[in-house]
């Protein structure tokens, strides 16, 4: 365990998230003894979500520790999610002695963890001997951070954890790896092809994904956008890479970009389901440029006319070095048209948020949150839910990169408390988590972790009493609640009382705005139960008959 802790410290790991138990309990103490911070959780999944948020905001692997068997599997959900979202994460789990597992002899927590992990992570390694630990740690680090980042599983068996070595001999095992994240420079002809296509476009657009946020290339993107004058559209977690209120932001006119753009340059974004895989509303005659580190991603859904394979920083630097060689031929009406359409839509949206409905809807509550968060742009926003996710994303502008974390590519629920903790620990900044009541239920117990470590995190639970809303219909003759119904009378603010945090129960937009401003200013753990109307929100899977007739007029 000493060797494992010191191997992690040698590669720069200063924080470990996790949940201890047999056989890794001592590991957490030893890690603390090396000067590493150990953030202990109530559930392994949230420790993994914290490590993922840490990886996203810092660009360096987040590390978390779990016990064996089901503890490992609880954490593995986060590592799989990190892999899909390209977050650099290393999950370290203790595991049982190999021989009785291989012979299926029924040993303690005898799961073949390595082979369970392999299909859902970027890489997986097992360590059976203590002398192999430094090599395994470096390999895990390289795998997590190089190329397209992802989740790595490191399986450390009980014999390896417990093995005793001579200290002098152990010290000889440590080494400092060289160039763990090498640049991948694009081919010059690929750069020229992309610039040629972009410069000839009449209605070009740049689509920014969360990969650009994680790659920390906002300086280069700003130069590219402002040199070319091409409008940009940010995906959800790319909001703030360039400010949402930038004059070339096309944030409010996604449909126009999809339908009319003749050339779209993807920067840190993939043509997956979040972009209709490049079909649907997209201009069928449009062409794509894709800046992508993984060549396998090219052409996966639409033909890519100009692939630029390389890391984003190298690719953008190469484009900027040649951009003055090209004359851009954009339609002079393209950008003014986008700006005019954006202004109209922004005013309509502003009017929607200004209505102070009581009982609150998502919109009236978010109008209050918007005032506080946009006055505090350095606060990191964590966001999940159904309506709570969609409406918050649309309502609250971001002005700084890596300041919005949500459920990302898989649109999963249950990332809230872990992500808030990881963001606060990794950056030292204040965090606000806006959670649907259903989403909060997945991870709510780790609000206690926020309190135990006295983190500057404010959790806002939008309580409409259900998944989508609180008046779900039962379709058959049953006295049980509908599958989507929770509890409109639940008092989530009582979590604050239970764990010694500031707590608020609010029923009006003015109360919410005042509570949120006070909580953020306190830089202390806080929870706000934001009481919405039971019929606020709608089913988001387009199952029309599950949406009830509203009980209130949300326009008054």
Describe this structure in words.
Residues about 550-555 have low confidence and may be disordered. α7 links the parallel β5 and β6 (about 150-155). The chain has 22 helices and 17 strands. α3 packs across α18 (about 415-425) and α16 (about 360-375) packs across α17. The protein is globular, with a radius of gyration of 25 Å. The strands form 3 sheets. A 6-stranded parallel beta sheet has the order 2-1-3-4-6-5, sandwiched between helices. The protein has a 6-stranded parallel beta sheet with strand order 13-12-14-15-17-16, sandwiched between helices. The chain has about 550 residues and is α/β, with parallel strands linked by helices. About 40% of the residues lie in helices and about 15% in strands. It has helices at about 1-10, 25-35, 45-60, 70-85, 100, 115, 135-145, 160, 165-170, 190-200, 210-215, 220-230, 255-260, 310-320, 335-355, 360-375, 385-395, 415-425, 435-445, 445-450, 495-500, 510-520; strands at about 15-20, 35-40, 60-65, 90-95, 125, 150-155, 205-210, 230-235, 265, 285-290, 305-310, 380-385, 405, 430-435, 455-465, 500-505, 525-530. It starts with a helix and ends in a 25-residue tail after the last strand.
């Amino acid at each position: 365990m000493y060797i494992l802790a010191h191997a992690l410290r040698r590669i720069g790991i200063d924080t470990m998230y996790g949940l201890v138990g047999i056989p890794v309990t001592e590991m957490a103490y030893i890690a603390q003894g090396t000067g590493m911070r150990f953030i202990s959780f109530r559930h392994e999944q949230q420790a993994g979500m914290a490590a993922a948020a840490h990886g996203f905001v810092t660009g360096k692997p987040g590390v978390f520790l779990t016990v064996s068997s089901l503890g490992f599997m609880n954490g593995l959900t986060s590592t799989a999610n990190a892999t899909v979202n390209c977050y650099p994460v290393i999950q370290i789990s203790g595991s049982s002695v190999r021989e009785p597992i291989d012979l299926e002899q029924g040993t303690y927590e005898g799961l073949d963890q390595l082979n369970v992990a392999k299909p859902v992570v970027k890489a997986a390694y097992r360590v059976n001997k203590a002398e192999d630990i430094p090599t395994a740690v470096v390999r895990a680090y390289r795998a997590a951070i190089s190329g397209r980042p992802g989740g790595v599983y490191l399986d450390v068996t009980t014999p390896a954890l417990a093995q005793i070595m001579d200290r002098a001999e152990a010290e000889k095992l440590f080494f400092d790896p060289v160039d763990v994240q090498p640049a991948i420079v694009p081919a010059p002809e690929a750069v020229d092809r992309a610039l040629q296509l972009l410069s000839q476009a009449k209605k070009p657009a740049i689509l920014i994904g969360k990969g650009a946020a994680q790659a920390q290339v906002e300086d280069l993107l700003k130069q590219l956008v402002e040199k070319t004058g091409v409008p940009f559209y940010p995906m959800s977690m790319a909001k703030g890479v360039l400010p949402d209120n930038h004059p070339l932001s096309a944030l409010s006119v996604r449909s126009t970009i999809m339908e009319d753009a003749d050339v779209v340059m993807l920067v840190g974004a993939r043509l997956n389901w979040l972009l209709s895989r490049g079909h649907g509303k997209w201009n069928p005659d449009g062409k794509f440029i894709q800046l992508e580190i993984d060549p396998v991603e090219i052409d996966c859904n639409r033909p890519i006319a100009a692939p630029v394979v390389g890391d984003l920083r190298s690719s953008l630097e190469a484009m900027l070095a040649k951009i003055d060689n090209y004359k851009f031929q954009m339609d002079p009406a393209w950008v003014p048209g986008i700006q005019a359409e954006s202004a109209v839509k922004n005013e309509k949206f502003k009017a929607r948020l200004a209505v102070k409905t009581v009982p609150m809807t998502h919109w009236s509550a978010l109008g209050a949150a918007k005032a506080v968060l946009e006055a505090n742009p350095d606060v990191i926003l964590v966001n999940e839910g159904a309506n709570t996710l969609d409406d918050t994303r649309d309502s609250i502008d971001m002005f700084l990169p890596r300041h919005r974390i949500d459920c990302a590519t898989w649109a999963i629920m249950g990332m809230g408390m872990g992500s808030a903790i990881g963001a606060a620990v990794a950056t030292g900044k204040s965090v606000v988590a806006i959670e649907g009541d259903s989403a909060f239920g997945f991870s709510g117990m780790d609000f206690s972790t926020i309190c135990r470590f006295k983190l500057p995190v404010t959790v806002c639970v939008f309580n409409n009493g259900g998944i989508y809303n609180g008046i779900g219909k039962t379709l058959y003759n049953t006295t049980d609640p509908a599958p989507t119904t929770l509890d409109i009378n639940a008092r989530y603010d009582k979590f604050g009382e239970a764990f010694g945090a500031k707590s608020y129960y609010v029923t009006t937009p003015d109360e919410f705005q005042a509570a949120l401003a006070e909580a953020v200013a306190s830089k202390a753990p806080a929870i706000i139960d934001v009481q919405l109307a039971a019929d606020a929100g709608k089913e988001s899977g387009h199952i029309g008959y599950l949406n009830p007739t509203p009980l209130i007029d949300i326009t008054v």
